[in-house]
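Re: that backbone. Tokens:
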């Protein structure tokens, strides 16, 4: 028996609403992206506040929480700046060798009927690096805006809790508090495990660089530590710069191949064995959902979307689980539970 027309109408309206919301998020990138990142950071850093409340007055504990946050963000910013500066300096010092290596690789590919385009491909590569540097100022502006939102948003958390307690009924309040607590816990779990696996990846990459004699071992370790926060894509991108530099540093292709194989093995081992063992089923997202949502949020918000794709998707899954009409979405995105 066919479903009533009203049911199909509601589904059509839901699809239209989804499209409009997606386009709205893209159009309001400068506001919605920093707000989403700030919410993720607040959820991650909030447990520091109750911990400091045990030894400090309330206002000082807020200041201490913000100080901890600024130290962490400052450390990440300094690491990004140091890594980018060292990589650009290293390649600029060996520019002729890099161009010669690229031409050699292009000639080799031409012999295999794979057209890289010596001049065109090289210019695209240079243009990509220049575009990253030209956007550095914009990145720092967004980081400042996000830090401001977090600083202003932290004191509002207790006020929001009071408003929810006053406005909602007991059952609704319980569901909202339960969902918020679950979201915060899973975001912290994700960030904690990702930080640990990123540290393992960075240290392993630095050690492998020392073992193979690759220069700038600290830079390659920091670079892979930072890129590991971007699921799937970051793991692959982190292999490229040290491999390119190995081509410049060493004569022939044997040592670059060894460097590449070692970095690839480290990324595969951490991504496929260490990370699942530490994370377990706490996120409950299927692997295909992670890849699809990574692509989706990267399309919506660019690199920032890739960084927070997993926390945002986890939030959506938890919210959808609390409504019968959207529970199927949570089931679709969740990892099947093993008996």
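Recovered sequence:
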């Amino acid at each position: 028996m066919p479903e009533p027309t009203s049911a199909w109408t509601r589904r059509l309206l839901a699809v239209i609403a989804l499209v409009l919301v997606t386009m709205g998020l893209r159009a309001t990138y400068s506001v919605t992206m920093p707000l989403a990142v700030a919410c993720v950071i607040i959820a991650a850093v909030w447990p520091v506040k109750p911990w400091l409340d045990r030894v400090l007055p309330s206002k000082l504990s807020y200041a201490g929480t913000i100080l901890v946050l600024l130290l962490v963000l400052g450390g990440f910013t300094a690491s990004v700046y140091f890594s980018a500066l060292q990589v650009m300096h290293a390649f600029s010092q060996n520019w002729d060798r890099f161009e010669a290596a690229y031409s050699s690789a292009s000639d080799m590919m031409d012999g295999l009927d794979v057209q890289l385009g010596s001049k065109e491909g090289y210019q695209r590569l240079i243009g990509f690096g220049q575009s990253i540097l030209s956007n550095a100022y914009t990145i720092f502006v967004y980081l400042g805006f996000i830090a401001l939102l977090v600083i202003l948003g932290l004191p509002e958390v207790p006020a929001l809790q009071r408003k929810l307690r006053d406005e909602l009924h007991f059952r609704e309040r319980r569901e909202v508090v339960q969902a918020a607590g679950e979201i915060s816990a899973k975001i912290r779990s994700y960030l904690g495990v990702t930080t640990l696996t990123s540290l393992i990846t960075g240290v392993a990459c630095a050690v492998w660089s020392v073992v193979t004699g690759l220069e700038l071992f600290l830079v390659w370790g920091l670079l892979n530590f930072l890129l590991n926060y971007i699921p799937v894509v970051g793991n692959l991108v982190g292999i490229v710069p040290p491999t390119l530099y190995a081509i410049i540093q060493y004569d022939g292709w044997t040592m670059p191949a060894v460097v590449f194989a070692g970095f690839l093995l480290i990324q595969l081992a951490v991504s496929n064995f260490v990370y699942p063992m530490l994370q377990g089923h706490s996120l409950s997202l299927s692997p295909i959902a992670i890849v699809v949502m990574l692509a989706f949020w990267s399309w919506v918000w660019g690199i920032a979307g890739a960084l927070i794709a997993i926390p945002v998707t986890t939030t959506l899954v938890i919210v959808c689980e609390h409504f019968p009409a959207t529970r199927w979405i949570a089931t679709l995105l969740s990892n099947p539970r093993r008996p």
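Residues 66 and 215 are 37 Å apart (CA to CA). The chain has a mean pLDDT of 77.
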